[in-house]
Structures are given as structure tokens and as C-alpha cells.
Amino acid sequence: MTDAVDRATSDAFKAFERAAADAVERVGPAHLRTLADRIAEGGSEAGIVAAVPLAGFPDAARRVLATLASVRMPAGEAAACLRGVAAGFERHRATTTVEPVWTGPSTPAVPVRSTAQVLVDLVNEASRELVLMTYSAAPYEPLLGALADAVRRGATAKVVVETLQGAGSALNGPEPAHAFAGVRGVQVWHWPVAERAEQGGRMHAKIAVADERVLLVSSANLTQSGATRNIEAGLLVRGGAAPERAAQHVARLCARGVLRRLS
What we know:
The chain is of the alpha/beta class. It has 2 domains: 2-93, no CATH class; 95-261, Endonuclease Chain A (Endonuclease, Chain A, 2-Layer Sandwich). Helices cover 48% and strands 17% of the residues. The protein has helices at 2-27, 29-41, 45-49, 57-71, 75-94, 115-125, 141-152, 164-167, 224-229, 241-255; strands spanning 97-103, 113-114, 129-134, 156-161, 186-190, 207-210, 214-218, 232-238, 260-261. It starts with a helix and ends with a strand.
């Protein structure tokens, strides 16, 4: 009987740990601390769940609260555990790794990850926010499917593209923005020609950022050719300040009206 109770208690604590780990991934350490504060204050479930107006927070909070009910941990101890998870997540995120990413011919002696794999994996990692920038764009089904899944998870997805007008004669065919028309919930932005200080300036950046903690900088456009056919090179940065600053820079350009919403 005692062994069964011990196993049940152990399973309950593991469920709480998983819920806390999932919550910090989905809402970030700052919002997990808010959840910890509300739990420590002894608020109602409805009040705790509504504490942060962020997509994904209510579900994450409910899961943590449900597992707490099984653990029967005092509110103060539970809050301390959640704050510890938030601190551990921040320490892990502060560790920076950089790896090369390539499109094109591979060499068995020097293994590198492909742009196609890294791009889709990055989008699949996002739980809160995605920022993509590309000069040219064409429908690339693996990316579009991953974007649709990210939006369904509650992540905001912002894509900044060049326009035919902005590119002059350098681009032809459909507008790059049309590549994302089939993905409900994706925000498409552009750099209006009137905002360009120099004639002939282009929106030529190619980056992808997930949750301000993973950054891909690449020569590849968001096209089938860029992901799988051309020779393209890039760097994948995990942790550190670079992903956060890249996402925040784009956010400020949008807030100031330098970048404008297309759809």
C-alpha cells in the first residue's frame, strides 16, 4: 500500500514538473513568475488563469493548477518551484550556441544541417512568437504547414516581405506576400517605398526568430529554391542577446510605422 502511494505521489510530482516545463516554454519566464505570484497570493482559479492576456497562458496555467491539485503542495512551495523553473530556463537561454546551416551539395566529411530542416524545426519550436523576413517568397509547403501549426498553438506569426514595387524590376511573378495567403492568422508586413531613405533600397533581410531565443540568419529566401536547391549559407544562433534583439528591432520598426501591415 505504501509503495503504491509513493508511486502515485512520484507520478504527481513528475506531472507537475512537466506542466511547469511546458508552461515556461509556452509563455516565457516572466509570465511563469506572474503565475507563481498569483498562486502564492491564493487567488481563484479564474483569476489566476486570466492573469496574463497572452495566447497560451490560460491553458498553461490550468495544466499547472491541475497538477498542483494532485500534488497537494502548499501554495508558497509551488510558487517557489515555479520561480526556480523560470530562473533555470533563463540560465539555459543565456547560453549561446552557433552552428552553420547550408542549402545545396553536402560533403560527408563535414556534416552540416540543411536550411530546409532548420527552418521548419525553428518554426515548430515557437510557442509564443515567430518573426520571419524574406526578400523573395513562394509557397513552400513544409514551411506553410509549420506556420499553420504554430498559429494553432497560439503563437503570433509575423512575416516581412519585399513587394514588386519595392524591388523594381528585380522581382517578377506574384507578390511575395501571396506565398502566405493560405495560412490563416499570419501577419504580413512590408517596407513602404515612401519610407526608404535611398532610392533603390530593398527589403533584403532573410531571418527567422522563434520566441526571441532562436535566430536563423541566412542568404536563403523563403522559397523552395532557397530551402532545397540553391547553394545558400547561414548561421543558427541559440540563446544570448542576438535572437531577442533581432525580434525586438523588427517590433520597433513595426511600431514606428517604418514597416507597415499588408494583411
